[in-house]
Design a protein that fits this description.
Blueprint lengths: L7 H11 L6 E2 L1 H5 L10 E7 L7 E2 L5 E9 H11 L12 H22 L1
Antiparallel strand pairs: 1-4, 2-3, 2-4
């Protein structure tokens, strides 16, 4: 299971503090410090594009400005929601921040319960 060995109190603090941000890309060590095994993390390579008006991190790589690898916050929230059985319980949104907040809203109560029970 993805949460084996994970400090649920640290994980809950992360979701409460960073769960509303759909843009952050974390170094994998941020999560391995909580007890996640590196192989269960959704690690990807991202590039920022000079042609995007927001200099957004994308997967396409056109006019590459810089490349980074890591764990996209939104993908991690989806992974956590699925792991604790609430992956189908949140509304779908187009915006990354809105989606992150919707996912966090269903994760927090379940994760709080799991943390108290551990």
């Amino acid at each position: 299971m993805i949460l084996d060995g994970v400090d649920l109190h640290k994980l809950l603090a992360y979701v409460k503090e960073e769960g509303s941000d759909g843009w952050i890309i974390w170094k994998p060590e941020y999560f391995t410090a909580m007890g996640f095994k590196r192989e269960v993390l959704p690690i990807e390579t991202f590039v920022s594009s000079k042609t995007d008006s927001k200099w957004a991190i994308t997967h396409k790589g056109k006019n590459v400005d810089k490349v980074t690898g890591g764990v996209w916050n939104l993908a991690m929230l989806v992974r956590i929601a699925d792991a604790i059985g609430v992956g189908d319980d949140y509304d779908r949104h187009d915006g990354r921040g809105s989606q992150a907040r919707a996912i966090s809203a269903v994760i927090i109560p379940r994760l709080a319960w799991l943390a108290r029970s551990s």
